[in-house]
Specification:
26% strand; 5 helices; globular; seven-stranded mixed β-sheet; alpha/beta; 186 residues; 7 strands; Rossmann fold
């Protein structure tokens, strides 16, 4: 794995410890950022079920003002922080350790302003969690203005209440669904 674009372009990312994380591959990550745009200057990104943190770190490399990575595994959280420091991307990086559902609830209770973008990539086989997390992002006042949800090919994921499907992109066995907050967050 490597950083695809921005100021840390070409720098290698350490592989996540153990076999728990399934990092978003370079090709899919490159496609994601081609759709979001090469420059994320000043934007805020929420990386849900961050795993290796590659998406959050890529966003910071491309100029994001802030990237919040939510991950429950303590070893992966330490690695995200370590990689952020090693790559000179620690400024603007916040790692929140805990269950993604609970952390999204905490962000909402803390009155966090909406993130510009969110990326959701829970364990590959957990379609129910994927649906639940997408729903949590857009319920009530939305936690983000737009979200990309990574799914295995063939999995049906409807737009959650409060959002609309803006785009669908397929890359081999991976599908990325792009949702946007509906007008007025409803």
């Amino acid at each position: 794995m490597r950083i695809i674009g921005g100021r840390a372009r070409g720098r290698r990312l350490a592989s996540p410890p153990g076999e728990k994380a399934r990092p978003t591959g370079d090709r899919v990550r490159e496609a994601l950022f081609n759709i979001w745009g090469q420059s994320l200057d000043g934007l805020r990104l929420l990386d849900v079920c961050a795993g290796s943190g590659a998406v959050a770190l890529e966003a910071l490399s491309r100029g994001a003002a802030e990237a919040v990575a939510i991950e429950r595994d303590p070893a992966l959280c330490r690695q995200i922080e370590s990689e952020g420091a090693r790559l000179g991307l620690a400024r603007g990086l916040r790692v929140r350790r805990g269950d993604a559902r609970k952390e999204l609830g905490r962000l909402r209770r803390e009155g966090e302003p909406p993130f510009d973008l969110a990326f959701v990539d829970p364990p590959w086989k957990d379609a129910d969690l994927r649906r639940e997390l997408a729903g949590l992002l857009f319920e009530g006042p939305p936690l983000c203005l737009g979200a990309a949800v990574e799914c295995p090919k063939g999995e049906a994921l409807a737009a959650p209440p409060g959002a609309r499907l803006a785009r669908e992109a397929r890359y081999g066995e991976t599908v990325i669904l792009f949702f946007e907050a509906a007008e007025g967050g409803e």
